[in-house]
Design goal:
11 helices; disordered C terminus; mainly alpha
Length: 318
């Protein structure tokens, strides 16, 4: 803000058109980082809509911008894929998302309204940018990662709204809340090397990146599913299917114990909580089941450590 990035470049006659458009892209990135940090740490956003005048970047390709340009290019339709279309679509929802996070919501009706507005915005996205099927773009991992990033960025705020809504709710939680969390968990399959049949090395890089950037989203979604599995009156899902989704997530996180982005505390917490939920649904000793969940993670850690020693020993021998 000291450098004036929060103000639209058109307010500064000395800023070249090319530099001005890059400043718009940079500013929107800064606001997204602040918004994500507020959600990750449970703190208020530092920026509000009235704090800046910078406009949304244009939906144009990188090659449409060059240093000697004298006029901005005509923006392309939002259903046309460009280098910046994902950022543009995210920036267009920025006002709504900042309103959700920038004010305290005291009435359930207000939360319901904001949930509906966010869901409608998500549904109005161009069809090719809907990624309800994680495998629909598996042949282009770069495109798939961009689409998933856009979707989770929107669902992250939706999850915040649902949690605000559910904590004051006396009846069963809405099914759309559960669907939102299950969709986030399903995205783990999009970049799993065991599922991607081609270019395993590239898939592993995106797999690591996904779990580094969206670790908190996956954990929160998994805990939300645990919460729903304990509630009565499920309509579209069975408790067994929800527990299976949690088991799949735990198995996936255990496979990643020795990889970038893994957090033992998260795996242990989710494993113990899932066993607690199971003890409330099926017969069994609660403490023993929770201990089994912790022991399963401990065994996986030991195996991962043994694998590291084996790899190190082989390198020394070589």
């Amino acid at each position: 803000m000291t450098a004036g990035f929060h103000r639209d470049p058109s307010e500064f006659p000395d800023i070249p058109i090319f530099e001005g458009e890059l400043r718009r892209r940079l500013w929107m990135t800064i606001v997204e980082i602040d918004l994500d940090a507020s959600l990750n740490y449970g703190m208020p956003v530092m920026l509000h809509e009235g704090d800046f005048t910078c406009k949304t970047p244009l939906n144009v390709g990188d090659l449409d911008l060059f240093n000697s340009m004298t006029a901005l290019p005509v923006p392309r339709p939002l259903d046309e894929t460009t280098d910046s279309v994902l950022q543009v679509l995210l920036a267009r929802s920025l006002s709504l998302r900042l309103q959700v996070l920038g004010t305290s919501v005291t009435r359930i009706e207000d939360v319901q309204t904001r949930i509906l507005e966010l869901e409608m915005y998500t549904q109005r996205l161009p069809p090719e940018l809907h990624s309800a099927d994680p495998g629909s773009t598996k042949n282009d991992l770069r495109q798939a990662f961009g689409i998933v990033s856009l979707d989770i960025s929107l669902r992250r705020v939706l999850s915040y709204c649902y949690r605000s809504y559910i904590k004051d709710l006396t009846g069963p939680p809405p099914t759309t809340s559960l669907q939102n969390s299950l969709t986030i968990l399903a995205y783990q399959k999009s970049f799993d090397p065991e599922i991607q049949g081609t270019d395993i090395c590239k898939s592993e890089k995106y797999w690591d990146l996904f779990h580094i950037l969206f670790k908190n989203d996956v954990m929160q979604a998994a805990l939300d599913v645990c919460f729903h599995a304990r509630t009565k009156g499920l309509v579209s899902w069975t408790k067994a299917s929800l527990l299976l989704a949690i088991d799949d997530t735990i198995a996936n996180l255990i496979r990643r114990i020795s990889r970038n982005g893994s957090d033992i505390k998260d795996v242990l917490r989710l494993s113990v909580i899932s066993q607690l939920v199971k003890s409330q649904i099926m017969p069994g000793n609660r403490e023993e089941m929770m201990q089994d969940g912790a022991y399963k993670v401990l065994v996986a850690c030991r195996k991962a450590r043994e694998g590291e020693h084996t790899w190190e020993d082989s390198n020394v021998t070589a």
